[in-house]
């Protein structure tokens, strides 16, 4: 059983959809939990889910307030049986699939409100099944899990620890980044914390021995995605030459066009036009190969650079100049994700 959870902070934009696509294609999860999609489920194109091998049906936690969009979505691969809904509220969705329980959470920022969730989930524990809880808990287990700002409230940490102890829950072994959230501030205002995690009971760890999760880089959101399960290798792809909308977002595109077009030619006006178009095509083909020839490779390489910067940032030993360079790198990766998404949209229309 492989799972992904991500507080995506808005799924409507192309960059976030492309990032999510990459995570799903690489990790091939059966279950995907999304927090803060910021749109209604009906606003997400079915074709997007189908392109990822996900079921076009998925669960959300609707509210009695019609103006409030659901803050949690639970999706699944179309190759597995549809999970059975066990319970949901404004802080969680719990389903049963293949005789195991999976709960995704996006808890309230006030610890008093989180107490309602702890009570709800404690009743689910009585089912005595393998149980995984993953999500944004908005809570800390210890002071060491927060860096910057005020210390976590003792009452909040005690509540969280009591919930885990009373329900015989433990944190799933994990790797990657330790701090899953950054408030996007620098200097004295910078705060990092471990808000996102996965918990399980003994039945889960016995059913899935060696099951772990990895915390990966924050891209397109202030939260890191959590990846539970095995890794698969993404498929290679070829990028044929056509005019792609993503070119227009590149700062050097106009320069390439102007440089080719302004080079003088002599002859009849129609001849000049056809020759300039032919020359421009060759120039753009060369530029496309150099700049976008393997955009997936570029995304992966720039993402690796960003991960190294995130690791150094998490260590705390960085300057404000470093932070600004890291933010620039985040923007670069997000731009590449946007360009890659534009490419695939264009390619799907030209088939």
TrEMBL record:
Family annotation (Pfam families): Exo_endo_phos
InterPro entries attached to this UniProt entry: Endo/exonu/phosph_ase_sf, Endo/exonuclease/phosphatase
Tell me the protein's name: Endonuclease/exonuclease/phosphatase domain-containing protein
Source taxonomy: Eukaryota, Viridiplantae, Streptophyta, Embryophyta, Tracheophyta
Any GO MF annotation of the entry = catalytic activity
PANTHER family assigned to the protein according to its UniProt record, in alphabetical order = BNAC02G09200D PROTEIN (PTHR33710), ENDONUCLEASE_EXONUCLEASE_PHOSPHATASE DOMAIN-CONTAINING PROTEIN (PTHR33710:SF71)
Provide the Endonuclease/exonuclease/phosphatase domain boundaries: 5-223
């Amino acid at each position: 059983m492989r799972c992904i959870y991500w507080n995506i902070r808005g799924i409507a934009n192309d960059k976030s959809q492309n990032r999510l696509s990459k995570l799903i294609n690489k990790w091939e999860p059966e279950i995907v939990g999304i927090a803060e999609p910021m749109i209604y489920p009906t606003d997400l194109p079915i074709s997007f889910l189908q392109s990822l091998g996900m079921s076009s049906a998925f669960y959300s936690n609707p509210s009695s307030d019609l103006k409030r969009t659901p803050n949690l979505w639970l999706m699944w691969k179309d190759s597995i049986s549809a999970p059975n809904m066990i319970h949901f509220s404004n802080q969680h969705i719990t389903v049963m699939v293949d005789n195991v329980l999976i709960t995704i959470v996006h808890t309230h920022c006030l610890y008093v409100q989180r107490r309602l969730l702890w009570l709800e989930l404690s009743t689910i524990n009585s089912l005595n099944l393998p149980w995984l809880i993953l999500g944004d808990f908005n809570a800390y287990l210890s002071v060491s899990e927060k860096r910057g700002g005020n210390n976590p409230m003792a009452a909040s940490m005690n509540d969280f620890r009591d919930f885990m102890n009373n329900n015989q829950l433990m944190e799933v072994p994990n790797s990657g980044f330790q701090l899953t959230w950054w408030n996007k501030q620098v200097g004295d205002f910078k705060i990092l914390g471990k808000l996102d995690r996965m918990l399980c009971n003994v039945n889960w760890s016995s059913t899935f021995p060696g099951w772990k999760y990895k915390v990966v880089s924050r891209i397109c959101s202030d939260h890191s995605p959590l990846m539970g399960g095995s890794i698969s290798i993404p498929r290679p792809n070829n990028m044929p030459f056509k005019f792609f909308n993503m070119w227009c977002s590149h700062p050097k595109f106009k320069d390439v066009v102007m440089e080719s077009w302004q080079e003088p030619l002599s002859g009849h006006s129609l001849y000049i036009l056809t020759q300039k178009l032919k020359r421009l095509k060759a120039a753009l083909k060369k530029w496309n190969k150099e700049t976008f020839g393997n955009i997936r490779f570029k995304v992966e390489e720039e993402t690796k650079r960003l991960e190294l910067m995130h690791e150094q940032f998490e260590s705390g030993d960085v300057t404000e100049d470093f932070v600004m360079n890291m933010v620039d790198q985040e923007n670069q990766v997000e731009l590449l994700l946007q360009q890659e998404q534009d490419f695939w949209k264009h390619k799907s229309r030209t088939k």
